Structure formats: structure tokens, C-alpha cells
Amino acid sequence: MPQEPHVSEYHDSMVAFLEWIWGRDFMAPGGEGNVDKLVGGLDLAGKRVLDIGCGIGGPAFVLARKYGAHVTGIDLEPQLIARATRRAEELGLSQQTDFRTVSLGAFPFPDRHFDVVFTSGALTQMEDKAGIVAECFRVLEPGGVLTCYDWLKGDAPISDDMRYFFKMEGLTYNLITLAELAGHLAAGGFEDVTSEDASDWYRRESRREYEHMRGEGRPRAVELIGEAQAEHMIEDWRSLVVVCEKGELRQGYTRGRRGTRT
User: Fold this and answer.
1) pLDDT per position as a tens digit, 215-235
2) What would the pLDDT profile of 53-71 be if each residue is shown by its tens digit?
3) Model-level pTM?
4) Radius of gyration over alpha carbons of the chain, in Å?
5) Are the CB atoms for 58 and 75 separated by under 8 Å?
6) Which domains does the chain have, with CATH numbers?
7) CA torsion, points 193, 199, 202, 208, in degrees to nearest 10?
8) Using CA atoms, how far apart are residues 21 and 224, in angstroms rounded to an integer?
């Protein structure tokens, strides 16, 4: 059956706000340090890396500049890909990075094409977790690694606080637990699957971000996105802090390796 057309969720004002909070070229928390965490212990020099949900390119630029990787970034939103491509040119990284708009479904790459599949905050929004894990497995070389950072949920049912957070975000969320995500990797054929809960880290970060944007950072937020939108985003972050501090919205790292015999 044909896929439903993707509806753009990241307008320019939201992207500007996320960059202000999380750093130039980044649309997920942690910046360069989060990229370092995701690829810790991996030798990426000259390796082919697929960045799923690459956004405006921040992680891909770190992987190329700092680690010497050749990075293909994919995203559903063409305006983000256009920005990433322009920014790569500005940074002199066009030879090491390639950004492409894709549709939901199978990746437009042959089997065993990449050494590493990297994703930061993208699986969070995808409904078919098993399907995306299967595609990651397919495009990895034997011995290749899938490494993920994701927003997740706790074991309890979705609460009214979480539903309010979803409403304020205006984004698609398909949250599962860290254990469930690790289970998808194992069921999809990955070996040596590991997971690490990072909720304590982002619980502190979200509170710090919120206090900054509603306090001394508020004039800059208004300058960036206007009074009404700034008020909305500050309330959005307040709702984020609530679900993080209650342990309902969680964050974690998951990694698995495609076996050399597969």
C-alpha cells in the first residue's frame, strides 16, 4: 500500500528555538557530547555512517569533522535537508556528507552498505520500530553497529501530563520503554545489545533549560520567535520538565552489532 504523505512538523521558528537551546545545527539535546557518547569506542575514520533523522546536520558534521567518517544523512523533511546541505558547504564538509530526503518505508540503499547506523532522537517518532530496526540491520555490513539515543517512556500508562506535553509539542511521539527498544534490536538479529538509561542526565538538563528560557534567556527567545511563540515554547518546556521529573518521559542509549556470519 502507498505510504501516507509526511506532514512537516519542524517549522523555522521551532528549529531556531531548538538551535538556541541545544546548539548550532542541533535538534536534539547534548550537542557534540551526545554524539561522542553515541559513538564511544568506535573507529569511524573512513567509515560509511548512516544518520537517520539527521535534521539540520549537527551530528553528521561532528562525525565527519571530528571522527573522519563519510556520513549520509536522511530525513523526512526536505527543508531540513536543504539547510543541512547549505551548512555543509559553509563548513567545507560537502565531500564527507550527503543529505537526502526520504519517505517512510525501506531505505533507498543496497544491502550491507554502511559500517555504522547512527540515530539521535529519530526512532522516538517512528511507529514501526521493528521495521526500522530491520532496515538498519539490512543496510549494515556484517560486524556493523547500530547506535541510538532516544526519548522513551516508563512502564506506567501514558498520563494526562504526558498527553498535555504531546499537545504542547505538536509532534508525533510513539514512545516505548528502553527495555522494549533493546528487545526490538535483539529480535531483529542484533548481537551484543546494550542499553543505558540517561534519564537522570536529561532530567537535570531539562530543568536547567527551562529556568534559563523563562528567566534571563527570555528576551532572546522573544527576539528569535516572537512573544506568543516564546510563551508557547516556555510552557512546552515546563510540561517537559514535569514528565521528566516524574520519570514518565525517559531518555536512553541502545546499541547492537550485526554478526559477522549474517
Assistant:
1) 999 999 999 999 999 999 999
2) 999 999 999 999 999 999 9
3) 0.91
4) 18
5) no
6) 12-258 (3.40.50.150)
7) -170
8) 11
